[in-house]
Amino acid sequence: MIALNGVESCKSLAELLANLIPGGVVFGLVEKDTFVWVKSSESFTLDIFKVGNKLNDDTTTIQAIREKKVLVKNIPRTVYGIRVSIVSIPVLDDNGNSVGAFSIAMPKLHPVAAAFGDFAPIIAEMFPEGSYIYMSDLTKIAYAQPSKKFDMPTLPVGYELQETDISHRVIQSKKPIIEEVDALKYGEPLTIANYPLYDDANQNIVATLGIITPKNAAVALRGMAGNLENSLEGIAAAIEELAASASEIHSNEGSLNSTINDIIKITDEINDVSAFIKLIAEETKMLGINAAIEAARAGDAGRGFGVVAGEIRKLSDQSKSTVPKIKQLTETIKQKVDEASRKSDLSLDASQGQAAAAEEISASIEEITSMSEELNRLARTL
């Protein structure tokens, strides 16, 4: 209670305290039901606290006067547009009658709002690309703190919340929301996180706290990871095709090597036939010589037979002389075939190495592709 003769002292004290109380304050002196004196801080005022304003019977101040006791009441935002705590202290005359009240009104700030000016400038600078920290009440942005690297001029203090804004949706849902916003809305890709803030007394949502961070680096990293993944997929497809070609080459080389071996066998058979021809030629020559001897013994009767025997010897000699040529040719063929066989073996080994290398490259590409997918996943978390 305040004695009537102590009112002037209270007013003097209020004059001193008005701009010293954090968050602001309004002092008012009411006689009966009308404000006769008001002192507001520079940062806070209330329309109801004006000299000449009359109070309704249901106000805290009138109740305090009527009940002759100090009343403290938290006024919801719906009454004055801001949450307020009002303390009403009855003023008593010398007879103990209530003749008025000394009222004090202070904005009821959420602890986060009260500390916003202390923590927001620090946190805003903790992100590599900068950030924008803001706090809204139920209708507009009330506090904002840009960083040196990043600002949101389209969301200044006083900005009225729209239905599409995250803060508005958090207020409606009473749940935190974190969203990635593409460059179409604000000119660059952003991540916006917004959280509801509650009144400690009744757990009603009274404000939201949001932080906006640019995601240019993350988007660029994500694009690079996507391009890397696509490139690796193309390389992997080419490697698979190369591996398939190497496998086919290996198969063809194996078939060629088998064919060369068959040719070598055929040249060996030709040599056998040549040897057999040589043997026949020698035996034919012997038969021709024997025939000539017998023709000589027969005299004139065997003269014609002797001519034939001579021709047989000539054919035998010709056949015998042909055999070395055939042998020479077959030897040449065999040498060429042996050389081709060696090259085929080398090619076969090379194709096997190529196929193995292609498989190793393909395995490496798969590993790099897996790493690019992980890189892409990490980029999405930034």
Automatic annotation (TrEMBL):
Keywords: Transducer. This is Methyl-accepting chemotaxis protein. The keyword ATP-binding does not apply. InterPro entries: MCPsignal_dom. SMART domains: MA (SM00283). SUPFAM superfamilies: Methyl-accepting chemotaxis protein (MCP) signaling domain. The keyword Ribosomal protein does not apply. GO terms for cellular component: membrane. One of its GO terms (biological process) is signal transduction. Residues 238-382 form the Methyl-accepting transducer domain. Pfam families: MCPsignal.
